Amino acid sequence: MVPFRGYGRLTRSTTLALLTTLAILAAEWADLLPDNVMLAIRTGCQIYVLLRVMRARISPAYLLLWGPLAWFLPLPTALLFFLFGGRKHVALAEAKKEVNRVAWRLSDEPDFGGNHFRLLGDRDGRDTLAELRRLIKGARRRISLSTYILSNDAVGREIVSLLTARAKDGIEVRLLVDAIGSFGIPLRLCRPLRRAGGRVARFNPALPMQGKGSANWRNHRKIAVVDGTVAIIGGQNLGLRYMGDKPSKRRFRDCSFRIEGPTAAAIERVFIADWCQATDEPPMSLAPLLRERCPHVGPARVEVISSGPDCEGDPLWEAYEKLFSNCKRSITVVTPYFVPDRTLFTLLVTAAHAGRHVKIMVPRRSDHRLLDLARRWHLRTLREAGAEILFFKPDVLHAKLVVVDDEHLVIGSANLDMRSLFLNYEIGAVVRDPAALAEVGALIAGWETESTRYTEDLYRRSWTWTGRAIEAVAKVISPLL
Hints:
Blueprint: H1 8-29, H2 35-56, H3 60-72, H4 74-84, H5 90-106, E1 116-120, H6 126-138, E2 142-147, H7 154-168, E3 172-178, H8 185-189, H9 191-195, E4 199-203, E5 223-226, E6 230-234, E7 256-260, H10 262-279, H11 287-291, E8 301-307, H12 315-325, E9 330-334, E10 338-339, H13 342-353, E11 357-363, H14 369-374, H15 376-385, E12 388-392, E13 401-404, E14 408-412, E15 416-417, H16 418-422, E16 426-432, H17 434-448, E17 451-453, H18 465-477
Parallel strand pairs: 2-3, 3-4, 9-11, 10-15, 11-12
Antiparallel strand pairs: 1-7, 2-5, 5-6, 6-7, 8-16, 9-13, 12-17, 13-14, 14-16
Helix pairs in contact: 1-4, 2-3, 2-4, 3-4, 5-10, 6-7, 12-13, 13-15
C-alpha cells in the first residue's frame, strides 16, 4: 500500500498546464489558431476559473479578485488559478484519510482525554524555548518537529544544532518546514543535520513546481512531538522574532502549549500525514509510530483539529461555527489578523446584539498592513453591535486564542482570517479543563492591561471615500495574503 505514490502526477500536470498555456499564447500571437478556436479556449478558461472560485466558497470578495482577471486575461488567469487558486484537493484528502485508516487499524481511534496541559506564555518566549531544549535533549527514541518559519538566527541555529546532536546519538529526527515560510533556509542551515542522519523535508515547494496542489496552500502548523508522548503546539515559529533568552523590542507576543498524554499521539499523527505528503513515504512505513498509545497522565481533555486542503470540509471553521452558535455568555477572540468569513462574522455580530460579551483583541498594528486595513470594517461593525474591541499596544500580538463561555478554549496555529480557515494547513485543539481556562484567562487579562479600547477617532479616515476604497481593496485580496 503506497497511497502517496500518485503525488508525482501533480507535478507533471502542473508542467503540462504551463507548457500548454505557453503554446496557446504563442499560437495566438503568431495567428496560427482561428478566431473561433481562440474564443472557445478563452471561454473555457473563464468558465474553469469561475467554477473553481464558486466551489471554493471563501467569500464574495474572492470572486471579485479572480472574476475581472478571468474576463480580461483568461489564459494566464486560468494558469494562475491552477497554480495558486482553489482550496481542496481530492487526492490529498484521500491520502490523509488513508493515514487515519492505517492508524485506526493499528490501534484505536484517538483518545483525547487524560492529558496534562501547560501554558508556555511568558513575555519573551523563554518558556517555549526552554521546553523545546529540554524535550529535545531528553528524547529517547524520536523527535518530530514541524514549523512554518525556521529562521537562520541564533534560535534557529540552536534548534538545528540540538537536533543534529541527538541524530548523532541515534535518535530518529524528522524536521518538516514549509517551503515558502522557510524559503531557502533548510538547504543551508540543515546540512549538518542531514549528515548526522536526521531527516529534513520541505512542504509543498513552489519553485521549481514540485508541489502537491496549489502553491497557495501553505503548512502553517507548529508542532513538536517527542517520543509520541509529549507535544508542543501554538503560534510560535522557530526564530528570535518568536522566542529567545534575552528580551527584544522586535519580538512578537505569543504563546504555545505543552500537552502530555494521549493527545500527543494524535498530534504526531497529523505530523505523520504531513510528512508522508512531503516525502511520498507510505504510512505503513511508519506503522510503529501509528500503533503507539499513551497512558492517561492528567485531567485535561484536549481534542485535536486538523484543517487544510487535505481534509473533507473545514473542521476548524466548523468548530468555531458550533461554538459561536451555542454561546450563552461570552466569546473572547485573540488573533493577530481578524478577517473572518461572512458566517462567523455574522455569528459574532448576532451574539453581540443579543447581549453576549464579545471581546476581540488584536495588535494595534500587525506585521501585515493590508490585513490591518481589511479588518477595519469588521471591527467597526462589531463595535457598533456592542462588542468590546481591544488594541494591544507594546508589541505585535501574534497569539491565537478563542475562549467561549469560559468553558471551551481553542488553541493552535490558526488566525481568525480566511487564509487560516480555508487555505492553510493548520492545527488546533479544543481544550476543556478548568485549570487550563483559568491559566489562559489570566494571560489574556494581563494583556488587557497593556491594551487600549476602540475609539471612534481611531479609524477616522475610514469614513472618507478613499478610506472605504482602501478597505474594500484590502478585503478583496486578503485571502491571498
